[in-house]
Amino acid sequence: MPVRGDRGKTIRRANTMVRKERSQGVVPMIKKEKRKTTAWVVYSKVITFWAPGILLSKLGRMPDPGMQQAWREKIALVSLIVLVCAAVVYLTIFLAMTFCPQSVAKTQSNIIPISRDAVTGIVGIKGIAYNFTNSNLGSRVNFKLTGGIDLTPYFNVPIPDICKSTKLKDFRAAQFNVCVQENGNGGCPLGNPDDAEKNYKVEKMPDRPIGYDWSDVESGYFVVNGMVINMTPYLLAVGRTSSGDLLDQAIFAAANGKLVDASILFQRTSNVKAAVDCLAARFGAGQLAKDTPGCFAVNLFNYIALVVIGGIVLTRFFMAVVFQYFLSWQLVRRPPRSKVRPLSYNAAAPWAGKKPQTGAAAGGLGKGDDDELYTIMLVTCYSEGEDSIRGTCDSLCATDFSDSHKLLFIVADGIIKGSGNDQSTPDICLGLIEQDESFRDPEPCSYLAVAAGSKQHNMAKVYCGHYRVGNHRTPCLVVVKCGTPDEQDAPKPGNRGKRDSQMILMNFFSNVIHNDRMVPLEYDLFRKVHYLMNVTPDLFEIVLMVDADTKVYPDSLRLLVNCMNNDQLIMGLCGETKIANKRDSWVTAIQVFEYYISHHLSKAFESVFGGVTCLPGCFCMYRIKARKGDDWVPILSKPAICQEYSQNVVETLHEKNLLLLGEDRFLTTLMLRNFPTRKMMFMPQAICKTVVPDEFKVLLSQRRRWINSTVHNLMELVLVRNLCGTFCLSMQFSIFLDLVGTVALPVAIVLTYILIVRACMTNYNSVSAYLPLAMLILVLFLPAVLIFITTRKWVYVAWMFVYLLALPIWNLVLPTYAYWHFDDFSWGETRKVAGEGKDKGGHGDGAGTFDTNAVPRKRWEDYERKRRRSIKRKEREKQHADDSSSYQAAMVDDSASAGLLKNSVEDSMYYESHPGYSFMGDSSSGSVHGSSGTLPGAYGQQARYNQQYEMQNYPPQANAGGAGYYGDYSQEQQQQGAAHYGSYDDYPQQGGYADQSIYDYQDQQQQQQQQQPSRQRPGGPRDYH
């Protein structure tokens, strides 16, 4: 029984993190059944009603209806982005102008409150503050002046023009003269208030109104719409209300009822409403020193926004630091023996339990460590130069990982020549390896490509050999997509795109793991992988995907595999990508900090939740299959993922942005949607360097693809409800904020500069005035703290200022250009081919009709049976030619069981005398175990097998480099590994596990077969020790 591994050191998926009641099934993003009329299609046509089809065809040069619909959907998307940007602008700038006008906000900020602590030397006249410290005002009144007193009743205030309106002629209070002896002040002894400064030497304080608290509103005072009215002189002068006067009724009701806020009493009629301004002009004492409801709401919104945005920024920052210092180091450590699981294979497969191939090329590879998982290193090539491809392959093969457990898998995407290259890409790739003489001229094999029309049929050649660098001699396969004979005169025969190159490997492992039907290319790959590695392909568990312009550090592969061993829930990993040409031009210089912060802040934060939303295709690792208890489950090789990732019918703009522009992000999205409880992680200790665009036009083209792909993938991920977390502390909420932040980038930079200007002009006299400045400093300069904590390299602070200077490019130029080119699905200037023009259709466009009979699909045992019959037929023909006199005609057995019978005398005689032809070495048994059933193929097509498929014979390879050579290398590697990662002798021995070899399973399988010679029952995979 295998030992169950830990669930890892990151946040566990407990019931509080993943709510079962909201879990949902995986809905395919790319639906095969297309609905012609949807709400989105209707909206796109409504928003573009002004552009009929004939106008787009004639003037827009878009004769194809699909191009026209893509353009309409682009306009619809841009309209939604404009709405989001407008909402951000309104909430940031115009919300305050609407509910808290500048005049109100300015008045509130300049109010002099009299409140409980009276302001010494300040009095109020008509609601405005006056300083009477040096005045002679005290000698003209019969009472002692105190701070904050309202002196308006002592002045003869002229009746303002607003009170002489015809609407107010029936209201006594509008024009009544209050300067009578009965007003309580003995008339108006101080005269005209406009002459107060000259007559009494008081100093007016402009724009500084007197402010009242609710407790300062005494009898005879009341508040109307935030203005404090002092009606005491009027109430004493008139004595009682006037009959039929609505305004008088409201005044006396407010004064006698002791209703402090009397605003509602003055809303009875339009004339009464108009009289409020008249009362404020004649009897106004000041303003209420409280925010209006609108200003209060605006301030509340600003505080909430600051808390949310600041909380998100700080939370991301601290979680990134925690992950960097505590979590990531626990995952990259060499795993203890308790976490190393035995290798798994498909016990129900027909090749299970057989001996490794005799005379194989892997005879001199030696044995790897027990914790080294079998790994495929996939390098996809298109138009890169020889130096780039060689540098990538050198770095991969030179990693401190046993050659017996890694296989270099190079895919050349078509017979093309990159711009500036002297050789075609396939010639460059083949020139880098030591080809096996027996496979120097392989036959092209058919497979189903990711394309439309007749381009679904493609052919590829599989070259077999080794890649030598230093003391390493790594097994290597080079797959050259050469195209069918009909497309040899085309500009790029065999080219189907990067996604097709990945699908060659993904479909191959999916069919091998499930023992499903294979295309001829996959059977050829099966035999050559087994020939090179001495193990069947179903033992491979990991695939490392690297672009052809990337160089990985020597310990990167080992560190990533350690993470896979330490946490079985990890299904995908990526390391840190650094820039190799950072000083080539200003274009590369502005990208240095952008790469750094996207890894150490964004991806580190997402790794705490195990939900990195994008594993970069230049350097990432996926788990092909994962152990789950005593069983295994397919991960990258899951048929649902292979089927959706290999979609060849891509019609809508959304689907094309998903599949044609950002394959890497789309694959990550697929993995998260299909396995929301598993983890996608970032490991900062695993490092690679890549070459970035050094010209602005290339950067513009690259970021157009990345930004558009990001928007459309986030639109899919935000709908996945059962991601880790709950509410604001969830990956779904974080993805939503990323989506809004991405589409609002153009206005974000504009608002940033507006905020900077306002920060320079603001008079900081309250806490709320500091909020925008605090938010600005938090967003711009917190990354500098992260730099110091994570790297302690001050040079990155300099790169940060270079990045900040280029913010208009990152936040305005690039996103605006990308959004307007939503309907451009080409790779543009990123990877140029000699003589290539611009193709806006992207990969996958094709004409003609695909013939399903062109690509046969059979099971492995069917291919093997045919191959063995062919070998026997050729041997009999040879015997007949050597000894025609004694030749006896032999009947060729074409039955279904031919070549697969137990203890076949002909088989044993032939394979013992010709070991090089033996594929599985049937020494004791030639039976094929029954399959436990199959899953539907990735393409779901029923191919008719009416074509013959002949595989060439594989003779043995001489010595394959020598065992002594690799024996020395193995010891040196073990010493280096022990010094760098720790020796396995330090770990406790468990049941003799330390002496276990990965190949011991073959001897045990033979013993089991001898003890139980009966046919094995179909079932799940078994563990071997």
UniProtKB/TrEMBL annotation:
GO terms for cellular component: cell septum; plasma membrane. Residues 210-286 form the Chitin synthase 4-like domain. It comes from the Eukaryota. Residues 996-1018 have a biased composition (Low complexity). Its EC number is 2.4.1.16. The chain crosses the membrane at residues 37-56, 77-99, 300-327, 735-757, 769-789, 796-820. CDD domains: Chitin_synth_C (cd04190). It holds the Pfam family CHS4. It is found in: Cell membrane. Residues 874-883 have a biased composition (Basic and acidic residues). InterPro entries: Chitin_synth (IPR004835), CHS4-like_dom (IPR054295), Nucleotide-diphossugar_trans (IPR029044). GO terms for biological process: chitin biosynthetic process. Residues 866-888, 952-1025 are annotated as: Disordered. Keywords: Cell membrane, Glycoprotein, Glycosyltransferase, Membrane, Transferase, Transmembrane, Transmembrane helix. GO terms for molecular function: chitin synthase activity. It is an enzyme of class 2 (transferase). It is a multi-pass membrane protein. Coiled coil: none annotated. This is chitin synthase. The lineage of its organism: Eukaryota, Fungi, Fungi incertae sedis, Zoopagomycota, Kickxellomycotina.
